[in-house]
Amino acid sequence: MDTLIIPQSLVQELLPMPECIDVMAEALTALAVGDAVLPLRSMVWMPDKSGLLGLMPAYLGAPRSLGLKVISYLPGNHGGDRDSHQGAVLLFDTTNGQLLAMIDASSITAIRTAAVSGLATRLLAREDAGDLAILGSGVQASSHLHAMAAVRTLRRVRVCSGSHEKARAFARHHEAELELRIEPLEDAKRAVDGADLICTCTSSPQPVLFGAWIAAGAHVNAVGACFAATRELDTPAVVRSRLYVDRRESALAEAGDFLIPKAEEAIGDDHIVGEIGDILAGRLAARRTADEVTLFKSLGIAIEDLAAAHHIHATARRRGKGLAVDFGGHRVAYD
Questions:
Q1: Which of 61, 221, 265, 330 is buried deepest, with most CB atoms within 10 A?
Q2: 177, 83, 181: which is closest to 131 by C-alpha?
């Protein structure tokens, strides 16, 4: 079997958001029941700290998959014509080790990250939630708008960005695409006022969402900060919320939104209620009351990329999509 090369232009077609949310549910359930192998990610920083190379290997039992995401992260790309995250997801055959597919990682990351937030929203947000505030106007803001629209009926959408012009452009583009009225606002406090769904999708290392702003009963997806020293939520926002994560081990090592309040002794490890997969596996309760604030802290884990790659590869084979190449690995036969 040849290796399939699947470019960025095909990934969205092969991994539509509603399907990806269901794929993420299956993968996180497998993690919760112990049917996955997931080392912590490894990062190689350039000496001047201008960027890094991240390595994220994983094995997943359902669907049976083996693979690796290798991705560069250059924050200086924000606002330019290149995504800050670029790379490939490599999918291998679990029987003979063949490289089955090389898939653009930027687009997988954009879709699966928002899909997991969509899954968390489906599990944790109030059934009648539909007043959405998005902080940020980049790739993840766009993907999260689609994810929220996939799991809840949106009646109001507001967006706030560091650049008001980008917020206006975001609103114009997505209003036409989704037939939704989107309000671009310059002030984050006004943007989240009364919202029952909040997604923080920024590159800010400092808080952009404050606990005093969050309405009772809201659900928050915290997405942008992915290092121990960075956060998008202030300490009161985390303290007042029931905190769920994609993976506890990763949050304890890497999630600044949790680790900074912990270092301030405002919370302990037990403030993490559990993993999203524990809800799916029936071991953990979700929302308890209409007024409590729920918070999903997203870091992104390799089984999410792996499950997405497995789905993309299977769909591409079925539809005859992608570029097939003979990538090697054959044993040389001698007469």
A1: 221
A2: 181
